[in-house]
Amino acid sequence: MYEKIWNVGNHLHNVKVLRDGQGQLFVSYRQRYNQRVAADEYGPCPYCYGYYPKKILWRHNQKCKFTNAAGSRKRLALESSVLLPKSKEGSTILRRVIESMRNDEISRIVKSDSTILAFGEKLCTKRGHDEEQHNYIRQKLREVGRLLKDLR
Ligand SMILES: [Zn+2]
């Protein structure tokens, strides 16, 4: 229980770091020195509140002392993600996709509309891990951006 209380304290600190975009994350698992991991690639275990890289969260969960081990891999990822603060600018992937868009009226509409950004976030969760899909995401965002422009 002491370990869990410790982790919950770290979690509260980490939420503040992620929301403000500055400071240092307290994590339960570190990569080797030569592997840098972006802060948003970490997520909390929803059972012990320890922070692990999202791609190994499932592996941790198999031996987590506090897990109920009943959920699926997808459910675990979801339970972890709802513990994290929602950033206004979106995930790193979405930001990268949007930054590489042509700077015109359509991209300005995309950047300023919260519904389109939420849609983009959804696309990034589904396809963003694959760099080759970024072009597809950009096209989709431009499509809905044009739609909104016409509607206006
Ligand atoms: Zn855990």
Overview in brief:
This protein has 152 residues and is mainly alpha-helical. It is 57% helix and 4% strand.
Describe this structure in words.
By secondary structure, this protein is mainly α. It folds into two domains: 2-81, no CATH class; 92-151. It is built from seven helices and two strands, in the order H-E-E-H-H-H-H-H-H. Strands 1-2 form a two-stranded antiparallel sheet. A hairpin with a 6-residue loop joins strand 1 (42-44) and strand 2 (51-53). The longest helix has 19 residues, at 2-20. The radius of gyration is 18 Å and the shape is elongated. The protein starts with a helix and ends with a helix. The structure holds zinc ion. Residues 45, 47-48, 50, 60, 64, 66 line the site of zinc ion.
* SSE string, helices as H and strands as E: HEEHHHHHH
The helix count comes to: 7
How many DSSP E strands?
2
Rg on CA atoms, Å? 18 Å
Shape by Cα distribution: elongated
Q: What helical percentage do the residues reach? A: 55-70%
% residues in beta strands = under 5%
Unreliable stretches: none
Biggest sheet: strands, sense, closure?
Answer: 2 strands, antiparallel
What binds here, in terms of ligands, is: zinc ion
Average pLDDT figure: 87
Q: How many domains?
A: 2
Distance between the termini: 55 Å
Structural class: mainly alpha
| Largest sheet strand order | 1-2
